[in-house]
Specification:
Layout (H helix, E strand, L loop, with lengths): L18 E2 H8 L3 H10 L6 E3 L3 E4 L1 H16 L4 H12 L4 H22 L4
Antiparallel strand pairs: 1-3, 2-3
């Protein structure tokens, strides 16, 4: 198993459609019971369940697990903090919000330019 600070040394994710919990465990260097726990703590993590409640993860799930792993093991987040961070990443700003932020930035830059280059 890798040290917590070696997330960049994880093996590449194969081009498959579904992964078993054992495969994901190896790909993310996290034990299966931890993956099952994270499913309870992170609402975004929803593997497909089939025959006999077997979990099948998709590539997006594996990438999300690697992100969660990084937040917890490398960046030092708590479970609650990582959950909040993951929720914030899901919130994509609307185009109108982006326009307002851009307009504010432009106004601030124009004010700074006026202060640095006063009229002669």
């Amino acid at each position: 198993m890798l040290e917590p600070t070696h997330n960049s040394e994880l093996p590449p994710i194969p081009t498959k459609r579904y992964f078993t919990i054992g495969e994901v465990s190896e790909l993310c260097a996290v034990k299966p019971h931890v993956l099952r726990y994270w499913e309870q703590e992170f609402p975004q993590l929803k593997p497909v369940k089939r025959r006999g409640n077997r979990r099948y993860y998709q590539r997006v799930d594996v990438e999300m697990i690697r992100t969660i792993r990084s937040l917890l093991y490398e960046q030092g987040y708590t479970i609650g903090g990582a959950r909040q961070r993951m929720t914030q990443e899901d919130e994509v700003p609307t185009p109108v919000e982006i326009q307002h932020v851009a307009r504010d930035c432009i106004n601030d830059l124009l004010k700074a330019q006026a202060l640095l280059n006063p009229p002669l």
